[in-house]
Amino acid sequence: MIGKKIVIALTATLLAAMALSVTAEGQIRGGKLFKNRYKKENEELRFQIDSLKKEMEQLRQDNLLKDSLTKEMLSIYEENEDKSAAGLNPEDYSPELTDSLLNIWYLHRQIQSDRIDEDYDMDSVHFTSNVSDAILKERLEGMNSFITLPYNETVRNYMVLYTEKMPTKMGNILGLCQYYMPIFEETFSKYDLPDELKYVAIIESALNPVAVSRAGAKGMWQFMTKTAKSYGLEINSFVDERLDPFKSSDAAARYLKDSFRLFGDWNLAISSYNCGPGNVNKAIRRSGDRAFWSVYDYLPRETRGYVPAFVGAMYALKYSKEYGLTPSNVQMPVQVDTFEIHKNLHFEQISDLVGISVEELENLNPQYIKDVIPGNSGTYILRLPFNYSSAFIANEDSLYRHRADELLNPQTLVSTKPVTQTSSGKASSSSNRVSYKVRSGDNLGKIAAKYHVSVNQIKSWNHLKSNTIRIGQTLYIYSSGGPAPASSSSASTTKPKSGTTSGSTTSSGQVRTYKVKQGDSLYKIAKIYGTTADKLMKYNGIGSNLRIGQIIKIPPK
Length: 557
Description:
Number of strands: 8
Largest sheet: 2 strands, antiparallel
Oligomer: single chain
Helix content: 40-55%
């Protein structure tokens, strides 16, 4: 209604201005004496008319945008219906997100704001640079990358963005590159993939291993839960391997290799990492061509700049010295040792006896989301800076006993009863409960993010009237996580070896699983377990293609 009133008022003003303009012109014709005076007034009126026309056009565009909201929401939902990797699958939408299509529309806007180019409208911006187009083009051609793009306005803007518009961010990225890039290079080399693919992680997360998008994608490589599990990443109450730089990089490499097999073009394969192969295929069908710039306009909006951004990041790292970009001190260790852990172990046990801070342990081992390595359920990797290796080895025998009753007691860590939460956000006494001891540097926001709850919930559960907490204070946090890790006295179980079942049986209430090895097929696995390939596909929601390391669930008989 307000918009319509504005339109009516502007229209009336415009008509009045036009009438005055006509009158002025008539008076000019009737008397040359007033010609100069009315000529000046006429020019002013025409200027006002032009201004009013611009305002009306802007208002019309705003109203069109408002009126097309439903259409856009439906379009976005359609674009996301078969996303994977950094995208969304319909089943990935939480009840909060699927409550209305309006939430999906807002979600789309929020995802855009998480990108590294969030401060600019890259569809319309034109950056100026002291570096000439001729030099930029020459440098782009001289990079000799496996991925080639023509030099155009879009590519140029991203080259300037990454080199000149965010020196602080690029300093942090350069600092993190010193630690993470060797990991990526080794991983992509193992799969015989182009080394430059390592720059995808910069576009996805700016090399933040614990990055979480509003859509629920996590880690440096921004995997959604379903896609992560399909590539063999473990996700449970204590471990989220999407946050593990080593394992998530391995999964990303396999995903990109699969995408290249599908499209035969690295530009399209990289685009599919952002929006999923379904959306890329849809764009190819709409464009009638497989060339990237032919497909470009048909890709989802948030994906169009993905490949040019990739080139921009690659260019910035190659020519960082020419732009005076220097690595920030991110305090990541130069050399890291790895240890296999076969029993439950808490970060505070390690910190107390080895001398390394819990924060350092979290930085190097972000996949253990509750500071607990659940070694009783299998073999897990602990990474330590080289200078702490000797202390760890010297204290290894006593580590597992130190404060075990306090830190690893199942009743203290998590109760086995299901969570029950009232509408007010308070958890009942039958809920899963974690006791957390406040450490130096903690705040409610940090703790809430760690346990995937809200600050208000923590305050409610602990009867806090403000956000102030003190070191040593015990906070109780309720969640619906899985069972607690068994104490050191409990019977331990092991993860299945490649090509074997998990050791659990249907009689124990657990689902049997099989880890795919070289030469396996669905028919072969089905024959082992007395079932059919069709049942395996339906039970696991998969197709006939298998990957080495993939976990297959065996349907009960």
